[in-house]
Design goal:
With 455 residues, the protein is of the alpha/beta class. The chain has three domains: 68 residues, no CATH class; 115 residues, Alpha-Beta Complex (Aspartate Aminotransferase, domain 1), CATH 3.90.1150.110; 246 residues, Type I PLP-dependent aspartate aminotransferase-like (Major domain) (Aspartate Aminotransferase, domain 2), CATH 3.40.640. Helices cover 43% and strands 16% of the residues. Belongs to the SelA family. One of its GO terms (biological process) is conversion of seryl-tRNAsec to selenocys-tRNAsec.
């Protein structure tokens, strides 16, 4: 049985054809480091009784595999078959082709980001989006930061620092990652004043709470939960009148912030940004990467004088967007100028409005092909239910269809889910009633799933 002498030296491997190929692909430093680790493991195996010749024969394959794994990013593309269209943990909205092209162009060349081509002087990066946002929302002005929490934060800090911010107890929500609205308000320097009760808040609650020290009233759209039954809230137009009479700012945080009426696409209505502006809110905040269908961003639209004060806040520079996201957002917003073709061009709306019948046909077509690639599991077409995600319409689902995968043993769904997550292009579904369900609502092409499974 061969011993340590059967193992090649580091130089022998690096100077071999395989070594040169790996160096070309991964670099000498990475190959040398991985090789030393593999040789140490081989020597340990030989000390435990392994054959040195066998270890030497395995070395090239193991080294290549180690380097391939190390070079593979954990941010690699994957298939979201969870049934949640806007999945926060999976990056939320898929961008439109126009936005992807715009972002790619921005990465490849200098842009007139803060340069006025007409005058040759310095420009403002928000100017690339301001006009579009005014057009689409009806607001006097707009400013942009890196997400909606930041939009709320800078607005609260600008108008509520060291002053009182009034909010209904029923709207003190917790968003993703255990971040709570009261905590954001505290970081903004505002003093929280809770009014009403969890389920009922009346106009007099706000009116009684207003003092000379009140900086603003905050209204939060509770998009990530619902309270039903004996409830009451003050409608936004009435709250706007209360704020106006008192001379304080009304900030309406819409969260997901749709620019279009979702009912036109067969979904339950959500308040639109234009409606919130028309109802009299001084400022409206909303997200870019949820129902709007763009990259991560936070918008503040509203009165021109108030937007100017926000832009003068030193926080603005810390929260601003880069050229890549601004370019992608501009391309996304331009799609809304053509509402007749919006659903076919904007992936979020295309997925949400996709008919269940079409998805069911796809599931029936794919079931036998997927079964052939997973012989240890039974695969059948099934009805299922999708949801929008990211806190939008949390109690409402959309009829969908997908694949139901079952196998032997109670842990079969978990075993299969782990295998699919480990693919070069991971496939993620959800487990329900002893089966792994792959909801096909967001699967554009059959081959995307089949190619992933073949790997």
């Amino acid at each position: 049985m061969a011993g340590f002498r059967a193992l090649p030296s580091v130089d022998q491997v690096l100077l071999s054809d395989m070594g040169r190929t790996l160096i070309d692909r991964h670099g000498r430093t990475a190959v040398t480091g991985a090789l030393r680790l593999r040789l140490d493991a081989a020597r340990a195996a030989i000390r435990d009784g392994a054959d040195g010749g066998v270890e030497a024969a395995r070395l090239p394959h193991l080294l290549a595999a180690d380097l391939a794994v190390a070079a593979q990013t954990r941010l690699r593309p994957m298939l979201n078959l969870t049934g949640t269209v806007l999945h926060t943990n999976l990056g939320r909205a898929i961008l439109a082709d126009a936005a992807i092209a715009a972002a790619s162009a921005a990465m490849a060349a200098p842009l007139a980001l803060e340069f006025d081509l007409d005058t040759g002087g310095r420009g403002q990066r928000d100017d690339h989006l301001r006009g579009l946002l005014r057009e689409l929302t009806g607001a006097e002005d707009a400013t942009i930061v890196n997400n909606n929490a930041a939009a709320v934060l800078i607005a609260l800090n600008t108008f509520g620092q060291g002053r009182q911010a009034i909010v209904s107890r029923g709207e003190l929500i917790e968003i993703g990652g255990a971040f709570r609205m009261p905590d954001i308000m505290a970081r903004a320097g505002a003093r929280l004043v809770e009014v009403g009760t969890t389920n009922r808040t009346h106009p007099r609650d706000y009116q009684d709470a207003i003092t000379p020290d009140t900086g603003l009233i905050l209204k939060v759209h509770t998009s990530n939960y619902r309270i039903e039954g004996f409830t009451a809230e003050v409608p936004a137009p009435q709250l706007a009148r209360i704020a106006q009479d008192a001379g304080v700012v009304l900030l309406n945080d819409l969260g997901a912030g749709s620019l279009v009426d979702l009912a036109a696409y067969g979904l339950k209505r959500e308040p639109t940004v234009a409606e919130a502006v028309a109802e009299g809110a001084d400022l409206v905040t909303f997200s870019g990467d949820k129902l709007l269908g763009g990259p991560q961003a936070g918008f503040v639209v509203g009165r021109r004088d108030l937007i100017a004060r926000i832009n003068g806040n030193p926080m603005k520079r810390a929260l601003r967007l880069d050229k890549i996201r601004i370019s992608a957002l501009e391309a996304t917003l331009r799609l809304y100028r053509d509402p007749d073709r919006l659903a076919e061009r904007l992936p979020v709306l295309r997925y949400l409005s996709r008919p269940q019948a079409d998805i069911a046909v796809q599931a029936t077509r794919l079931a036998p092909q997927v079964a052939a690639l997973l012989p240890d599991f039974a695969v059948t077409a099934t009805d299922c239910a999708s949801q929008i995600g990211s806190g939008s319409l949390p109690t409402d689902t959309i009829p969908s269809a997908g694949l139901r995968l079952t196998g032997a043993g109670g842990d079969a769904p978990d075993r299969l889910a782990a295998r699919l997550r480990g693919l070069p292009c991971p496939v993620v579904g959800h487990i329900r009633d002893g089966a792994l369900i792959l909801d096909l609502r967001t699967l554009d092409r059959d081959d995307d799933l089949l190619d992933a499974l073949r790997a």
